[in-house]
Write a structure and sequence with these properties.
The protein contains four helices and no strands. The protein is mainly α and about 90 residues long.
């Protein structure tokens, strides 16, 4: 199975496009990127690919209840140990 590849973007805008995707770009830069996206098919595809692929890659791991039970017991034991108490 072939790996999915992000679209090809203008290299000079790569950082701005990623910041734009995450909403961490200033208003002036955002306007400049949006104007560029209106005229550049490659950068538009890159943004579409980020929207499509990143949620699949960065999916949070669901941990079983047993993990949280163990985590709680270990945390309580560490706190008790720090306080000089027995658990």
């Amino acid at each position: 199975m072939a790996a999915k590849k992000l679209g090809t973007m203008c290299k000079e805008l790569e950082e701005d496009l990623v910041l734009y995707y995450y909403g961490e770009i200033g208003d002036d830069e955002k306007l400049r990127v949006e104007q560029h996206l209106g005229n550049c098919l490659g950068c538009g595809r890159f943004i579409e690919d980020l929207h499509r692929l990143l949620p699949q890659i960065a999916r949070p791991e669901e941990l079983p209840q047993s993990f949280w039970d163990d985590y709680y017991r270990e945390t309580v034991a560490k706190i008790a140990h720090q306080r000089g108490q027995k658990f």
